[in-house]
Amino acid sequence: MTSPNAVKRPFIRARIFRQILSHANISPVKQKQILKDEGLVIEDLNDYSADIPLNSYMRMFERLSRVTHSPAFGLKTSKVMGPELIGAVGFIFLSSPNLEAAIEYYSKSVSTIQEVTQLIFERERQPTLKYVITDERITPRRQDVEFSIGYVNSLLRTYIGKDYRPKEIYFEHAKPVKGDLYEIHFDCPVFFEQDINAIVLNPEDLKKGSAKFDQNLIPLLEHYLQLLEHNTQRTTTFVENIEQILPHAIEYNNANLSYVSGRLGLTEITVRRRLKDEGTSFRELLQKKRIAISRRLLTETKMNVLQIAQKLGYSETASFTRAFRKETGQTPIKFRKAHLSK
């Protein structure tokens, strides 16, 4: 059995995969083999508070899709999961006074369940819940993304009731062969090859309440979560803090030192000095993050090189190609062809 202290980070709560595995309907022999290939055993999933490496979780999730011959395995599995999957967070969600409060709480607590992951709640133009994995090394991720978007959508439906339906659903990855399945599942338009993985909500739903609202239950569950957060806290480096901000900065064309310094509440001079102390620079971090994102987009989407260059904030395709070749030794096109030939 893996020692909890020996789990490689970033991690995810083992109970999440335990529930997913139990719904795969595969033989115990196949279950053991999937776990064994990641250096795990079934006992690693039985401790409610245990963790497993997030990379292993992603690979095992994709493998379950292949073993069950179900390309939409993650999406279908999300439909049968209830609030108990995420423990106290799920029950606080259902016990919140209105949907807006429920979403705000969940978005603040998601990192206690799965590291390097954000559920960003935006309300500037239209209420949108974005699912973001900030570490680009965590791949492949299609099954996890579809499961996560599907699961959050199920929580929203459980909270509001049968009248709930999202306005739109966005996925970064390419449209699957059976794309119509997704619109049936979500009961709304679903768009693929988008800039984000997200659920777009109807504004009027945010103030709707739940019949399960219990103001006496929330303090007890919040106390439990505070203890949980204390036990899972780890010291992050200054570089890691910036790496968490960069995906959002790149997406909104704010990938500059001024924006990142503002998010950190520090001056640009201080950020430069602290990065220098850790042996790097803002320019170097930004370049590495852009290339990491581009590698994933080249392998997981059908976006062309121009689209990827524009998404990442390059002024022209040539500058993106030069930066990519410098980092990887290949042009973006050759990198994609090499991946597809595997």
UniProtKB/TrEMBL annotation:
Keywords: DNA-binding, Transcription, Transcription regulation. Residues 240-338 form the HTH araC/xylS-type domain. GO terms for cellular component: cytosol. Gene3D superfamilies: Homeodomain-like. It comes from the Bacteria. GO terms for molecular function: DNA-binding transcription factor activity; transcription cis-regulatory region binding. PANTHER family: HTH-TYPE TRANSCRIPTIONAL REGULATOR GADX (PTHR47894:SF4). This is AraC family transcriptional regulator. It comes from Litorimonas taeanensis.
